[in-house]
DNA sequence: CAGTGGTCTAGACCACTCG
DNA sequence: GAGTGGTCTAGACCACTGG
């Protein structure tokens, strides 16, 4: 029932920051001092301090000390996004994927830059519409490195999502995501069954495996039917 | 120069997951086994496993074992957002805030729900336009609990941002953020100098302090001039 | 140099799950 | 009961910083 010691130390320290007893930039007591104050081992204090540092509350410098972090933390909210199929499943609806294009394509300048490859290089390209019940929720355009996924064009993307296929080949080691709003152009509008010019939420993703960009995707969502949510801290 | 032992263990384990040697759902060796295999103390293995768990690669259950995490991880990219003033400063541009409204207001049903307060209750309300050079980058509408920030209406929001004022009162303990796309209505369009109907990226935030919702904000951004970015893993 | 954080060890006790 | 993860201790060595 009782919280572990490192968690109690975290709570106490966090209280002193919230209180204003310790303010941004202040130096806080050393590990040895806190160890004596709370009557725990140094490793325990260390864990509390490390976690508070990871969470952005503290800044530590070896040989110098531990300091209360500045303002940046407060408006820095993580946003987590799952893949469409799960997103839809989590809401209790049926997911259906409709592949509308699957071919080899030449990289134009923009996509080539995103994939860190030469312009004109040939890669695999797919377009898939993801349906939530009878409404299109996402239109996915994806470029994939053939050396990473040689069987990409042979997949049935109504049965497995492109992202799931890539994951079966190897775990993704790193990723980047950009979130943008855009007005729908004619082609995308048609796929998502919205009017041309309607607002869309667009996710642009790049994923790395084995040290290279293996996939670049642009995911278009109708603004009325899609949003991203994120939290930090404990919302009581 | 050489990486700490816990980091080496992490790298090794991660490699086995990337390889496909361990697949999603597989049970991996126990801490005692890994301890013998790598020749390190159990605390060291423990730290490696804890961090991989925090990063989403592993799932652990006390009394049962440690398992390779499923697919969700791969498409789950955290997005970090800083406040506008910093964002603009980071790009090397001048930030200017223009307060356009600052008053007491009654909560309508929607905002009341967001703030977990009674409809009709009186709170403080502000509207501020944030400029990057000579272009408006954000139109901020904010509702604030008077019991938390009694001096809110007396602030000069051309000199301090609303969020900075709230932070000076107490640290934010928890937050929630929703990211949406919307078409600009007439009022917002005018403030952001875009056409009515133009796509906007909208952030809806709620922040908690002392266990209550203390602020609710809607931040409107012109789609052409604003996007959010996030990364995970090491992009080499 | 003394003080700091970063890491590590070899043990230990506990709560939990499963057969 | 045996095996698991979760935590904790009391020491230790190191790299780094500052005066």
Summary tags:
homodimer; 236 residues; alpha+beta; Arc Repressor Mutant, subunit A; Chorismate lyase; 2 domains; three-stranded antiparallel sheet; 7 helices; 34% strand; elongated; DNA-binding
CATH architecture of the largest domain in chain A: 3-Layer(aba) Sandwich
CATH class of the largest domain in chain A: Alpha Beta
User: What do we call the CATH topology of the largest domain in chain A?
Assistant: Chorismate lyase
Along the chain, the helix and strand elements of chain A come as HEHHEEHEHEEHEHEEE
Alpha-beta classification of chain A: alpha+beta
Largest inter-chain contact set: A-B, 61 and 61 residues
Kindly report how far apart the N and C termini of chain A lie.
Answer: 18 Å
Strand content of chain A: 25-35%
Shape of chain A: elongated
Range of helix content of chain A = 25-40%
Quaternary structure of the protein:
homodimer
Number of strands of chain A: 10
**Can you identify the CATH superfamily of the largest domain in chain A?**
Chorismate lyase-like
Report the biggest beta sheet of chain A as strand number plus sense, adding barrel if it closes: 6 strands, antiparallel
Query: Number of DSSP helices of chain A?
Result: 7
The side-by-side strand order for the widest beta sheet of chain A comes to 4-5-6-9-8-7
Radius of gyration of chain A over all CA atoms, rounded: 24 Å
Give a quick precis of the structure.
With 236 residues, the first copy, chain A, is an alpha+beta fold. Chain A is 28% helix and 34% strand.
């Amino acid at each position: 029932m009782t919280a572990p010691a490192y968690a109690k130390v975290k709570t106490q320290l966090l209280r002193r920051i919230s209180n204003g007893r310790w303010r941004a930039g202040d130096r806080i007591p050393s590990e040895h001092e806190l160890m004596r104050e709370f009557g725990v081992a140094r490793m325990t204090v260390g864990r509390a301090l490390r976690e508070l540092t990871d969470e952005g509350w503290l800044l530590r410098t070896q040989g110098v000390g531990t300091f209360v972090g500045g303002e940046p933390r407060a408006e820095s909210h993580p946003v987590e996004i799952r893949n469409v199929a799960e997103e839809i499943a989590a809401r209790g609806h049926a997911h259906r994927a409709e592949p509308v294009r699957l071919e080899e394509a030449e990289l134009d300048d923009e996509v080539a830059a995103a994939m860190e490859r030469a312009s004109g290089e040939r890669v695999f390209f797919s377009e898939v519409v993801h349906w939530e019940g009878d409404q299109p929720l996402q239109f996915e355009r994806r470029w994939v490195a053939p050396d990473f996924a040689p069987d990409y064009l042979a997949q049935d993307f109504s049965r497995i999502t492109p992202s799931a296929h890539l994951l079966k080949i190897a775990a993704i080691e790193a990723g980047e995501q950009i979130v943008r709003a855009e007005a729908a152009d004619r082609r995308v509008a048609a796929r998502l069954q919205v009017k041309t010019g309607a607002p869309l939420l667009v996710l642009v993703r790049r994923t790395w495996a084995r040290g290279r960009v293996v996939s670049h995707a642009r995911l278009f969502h109708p603004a009325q039917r899609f949003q991203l949510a994120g939290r930090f801290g404990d919302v009581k």
